[in-house]
Amino acid sequence: MASRRRMLLKVIILGDSGVGKTSLMNQFVNHKFSNQYKATIGADFLTKEVQIDDRLFTLQIWDTAGQERFQSLGVAFYRGADCCVLVYDVNVTKSFDDLNRWREDFLLQASPHDPDNFPFVVLGNKIDVDGGNSRVVSSKKAKAWCASKGNIPYFETSAKDGTNVEAAFQCIAKNAIKNEPEEDTYLPDTIDMSGGQQQRSSGCDC
């Protein structure tokens, strides 16, 4: 049945270095977290199969480098994206202020056919740090920014303990699906560069 075939959805994760992009991806795909920080060089991706409305989709999640010296690589990785995830650290004001730059840079380099309606999702990460006492960017401020950009969906997450990670990526997948053209591109098999077994999510009941 066609409804059981897997369709590829490309998701790009952007944000300043150190905000937790890699950790969020690993928490969602592998349910693992590491305190050891290692900067992403260029870009890397993981895949995970998700089920939405009785259809199977393969999320190809691209984790990109936050350092300035890798910015020129953006255009090669951004093209063909179905959804862009903007991540900031709720404990670092600059990472929030830079969301504008990341969003504009993506739209410039990816050149989506309908930039005004291209799906973004914003994640305010590291809400677990210091029990929330180190927080400097309020939920109200973040939600106001998202509203000003066309009501971008917003989630507050912890890559460390998994808070809202599953819910956020379910929303990301649903928004990516909306951006897909009518002609679905199906894959015969799930891509897995690591050679490991893919994990299934339980689907979204929201």
TrEMBL record:
Coiled coil: none annotated. Keywords: GTP-binding, Lipoprotein, Membrane, Methylation, Nucleotide-binding, Prenylation, Protein transport, Transport. Residues 183-206 are annotated as: Disordered. GO terms for biological process: protein transport. It is found in: Endomembrane system. GO terms for molecular function: GTP binding; GTPase activity. It is a lipid-anchor. Its main location: membrane. SMART domains: RAB, RAN, RAS, RHO. GO terms for cellular component: endomembrane system; vacuolar membrane. The keyword Protein transport applies. Residues 195-206 have a biased composition (Polar residues). InterPro entries: P-loop_NTPase (IPR027417), Small_GTP-bd (IPR005225), Small_GTPase (IPR001806). Belongs to the small GTPase superfamily. Rab family. This is Ras-related protein Rab7. It comes from Chenopodium quinoa.
